[in-house]
């Protein structure tokens, strides 16, 4: 992918991620036959847009204690030492290293830290639009997607199934919908 100018509508500047209008969600296969979906609250972050992708960056922090799948028992298990040890690792983070793209689609490469373990990941990202909201705030929105191996982040708990296979898939799909405010 070649590096190009920013997509139409993106104005250079520093944008703050708006936690009230942004989501981080995940999907993982359960028992090999169904999917469990959940969310983790984005607590803060910035998107710094330069005159081109090369001088743009992203940072974000998420609250591991906010993990929610709609089942309190499962959420408690995910917060335990079997999975994320949230008492010791309450914050997950992302810090970009590079942004490269063409048009409205680009790749943000950076360090993702989950469970106290940091790995480099690539987020397939799309600029989804810009607008001035009802309060006069300049907003820009982005969607990003990635797939990770939970074992690469030190999350290896599992249970064997009687029919074969395991209870929790290693692959986790992560989707981000970010609404940001300039200034």
Automatic annotation (TrEMBL):
SMART domains referenced in this protein's UniProt entry, alphabetically: YceI (SM00867)
InterPro entries the record matches: Lipid/polyisoprenoid-bd_YceI, TTHA0802/YceI-like_sf
All residue ranges annotated as the Lipid/polyisoprenoid-binding YceI-like domain in the record: 14-181
Family according to the record: Belongs to the UPF0312 family.
Name of this protein: Polyisoprenoid-binding protein YceI
């Amino acid at each position: 992918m070649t590096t190009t100018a920013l997509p139409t509508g993106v104005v250079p500047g520093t944008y703050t991620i708006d936690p009230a209008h942004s989501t981080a969600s995940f999907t993982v296969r359960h028992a090999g036959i169904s999917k469990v979906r959940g969310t983790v609250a984005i607590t803060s972050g910035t998107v710094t847009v330069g005159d081109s992708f090369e001088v743009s960056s992203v940072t974000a922090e998420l609250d591991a204690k906010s993990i929610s799948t709609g089942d309190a028992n499962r959420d408690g298990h995910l917060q335990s030492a079997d999975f994320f040890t949230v008492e010791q690792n309450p914050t997950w983070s992302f810090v970009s290293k590079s942004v490269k793209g063409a048009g409205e689609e680009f790749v943000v490469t950076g360090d993702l830290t989950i469970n106290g373990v940091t790995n480099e990941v690539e987020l397939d990202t799309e600029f989804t639009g810009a607008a001035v909201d009802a309060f006069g705030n300049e907003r820009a929105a982005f969607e990003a997607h990635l797939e990770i191996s939970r074992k690469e982040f030190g999350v290896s708990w599992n249970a064997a199934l009687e029919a074969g296979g395991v209870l929790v898939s290693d692959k986790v799909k992560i989707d981000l919908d970010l609404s940001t405010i300039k200034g």
